[in-house]
Amino acid sequence: MSDLAFPRLVIAGTSSGVGKTTVTVALARALRARGLRVALFKCGPDYLDPTYHARAIDAPSQNLDGWMMGHDAVRATFAHAARDADISLIEGVMGLYDGASPTGEEGSTAEIAKWLDAPVVLVVDAGGMARSIAALVGGYASFDPKLHVAAAVANRVGSRGHLDLLRRALRTPPILGGFPRDPEHAFAERHLGLRTADDSSLPSSLLDHWAEQASEWFSLDALLALATSAPSLTIESEIRGGGAARVGASAGPRIAIARDAAFHFYYADNLRRLESLGAELVPFSPVSETALPDADGVYLGGGYPEVHAAALSANAAMRGAIAAFAQAGGPIYAECGGLMYLTQAIVTTDGHRHPMVGLVPTEARMCGKLQALGYVEVETQTKTILGGAGSRFRGHQFRYSELDPEPPPSIERVYSLRRRRGDETTREGFRIGNVVASYVHAHWASNPRIAASFVESCASHRKARTP
């Protein structure tokens, strides 16, 4: 147990869509230009905003989710990622007090801010607003006396005169910055939120533009002082892989992890847990490479395989290599987009059918509207590569596809899946040999033994195939 100083700010919003990601990325980039080391975090299960964070600081962003991870894992994950940073910025989710319940703080930005004892900077869409900003921010600041709403940022202001007017209207907490309306440089959107950040959707010139805007329009010194004023955190322990002995580096299993434009949705903490257990993660591209790397297991994360369905389908060599690896007893863990890739085909919204790996006897059909969104809790019904029967963990679903037709009864469903809201359970999690494929994005902080079991399964396969 130790008391550690972590300069930090939570960048929260009055609601979704007020510009939290723009403010977070702009601040991070501007602070890096000053030579500071910045660590970035995202509240909630979101995969997209962290890709913007990663582009801004050239390093992974960590998710901090109260419901999936729990108090101790949130603090330990934060401490591990922030340990070498001069300042940490934690971007909120939805509005400051929005979460898993309309009557409690579970799953909210406010919950994470209190767990981390972090000052909150509230982002407000101030377009068309004057004195009302005092009532709005004052309400947020007084709603929970245990939360420290320390400053505000006024987004989409009309001019410098408008920003000065807002500052006169709201004396406490102070407004420490604002952005003018700038639709020309707004981030592109996709599926209930931002698009995945890459060179085309978020070029360096756009990042530099927002950094310059932050340097010109924000009180960076005041924000740094506010971050430094955050009290020390008492961190009880560093949460590792979950009780399994670390495999020696010389004998650690190699896990091939799909990382390209089609597959890139991974919780950074999940990957760290695998590595902490001795696994070597070997990235590969199902889109462009024709052979699997030499590996003892495969991890197929989520992403946008439907966008790259034609290229994935055309790469018959890789599809065949993954099928052969599974048929040889190789452990494969697939989530959401990974599940879609393992089906017989992805059918895009234009009706085109693109053949895939073919391990799961069904097709993934893209739909015009959201098919599932929300937290889930999983209990395994039998032993799998993720552990014994009765293993529980938490995760999240976010998908626009469905399986059509339903896989036949002969395909084992090894998950009993319960939604966060309601008591209804469904069977999911398709197992074919040592393959487990599901629509659930799991966070292994909810049960670190899951990561340990997957590493152990890969190590066992390595041993079995070694002469």
UniProtKB/TrEMBL annotation:
<comment type="function">
    <text>Catalyzes the ATP-dependent amidation of the two carboxylate groups at positions a and c of cobyrinate, using either L-glutamine or ammonia as the nitrogen source.</text>
</comment>
<keyword id="KW-0067">ATP-binding</keyword>
<protein>
    <recommendedName>
        <fullName>Cobyrinate a,c-diamide synthase</fullName>
        <ecNumber>6.3.5.11</ecNumber>
    </recommendedName>
</protein>
<feature type="site" description="Increases nucleophilicity of active site Cys">
    <location>
        <position position="441"/>
    </location>
</feature>
<dbReference type="InterPro" id="IPR029062">
    <property type="entry name" value="Class_I_gatase-like"/>
</dbReference>
<keyword id="KW-0547">Nucleotide-binding</keyword>
<keyword id="KW-0460">Magnesium</keyword>
<dbReference type="Pfam" id="PF07685">
    <property type="entry name" value="GATase_3"/>
</dbReference>
<feature type="domain" description="CobB/CobQ-like glutamine amidotransferase">
    <location>
        <begin position="254"/>
        <end position="447"/>
    </location>
</feature>
<dbReference type="InterPro" id="IPR011698">
    <property type="entry name" value="GATase_3"/>
</dbReference>
<feature type="active site" description="Nucleophile">
    <location>
        <position position="336"/>
    </location>
</feature>
<feature type="domain" description="CobQ/CobB/MinD/ParA nucleotide binding">
    <location>
        <begin position="9"/>
        <end position="186"/>
    </location>
</feature>
<keyword id="KW-0436">Ligase</keyword>
<dbReference type="Pfam" id="PF01656">
    <property type="entry name" value="CbiA"/>
</dbReference>
<keyword id="KW-0169">Cobalamin biosynthesis</keyword>
<comment type="similarity">
    <text>Belongs to the CobB/CbiA family.</text>
</comment>
<comment type="pathway">
    <text>Cofactor biosynthesis; adenosylcobalamin biosynthesis; cob(II)yrinate a,c-diamide from sirohydrochlorin (anaerobic route): step 10/10.</text>
</comment>
<dbReference type="InterPro" id="IPR002586">
    <property type="entry name" value="CobQ/CobB/MinD/ParA_Nub-bd_dom"/>
</dbReference>
<dbReference type="InterPro" id="IPR004484">
    <property type="entry name" value="CbiA/CobB_synth"/>
</dbReference>
<dbReference type="InterPro" id="IPR027417">
    <property type="entry name" value="P-loop_NTPase"/>
</dbReference>
<keyword id="KW-0315">Glutamine amidotransferase</keyword>
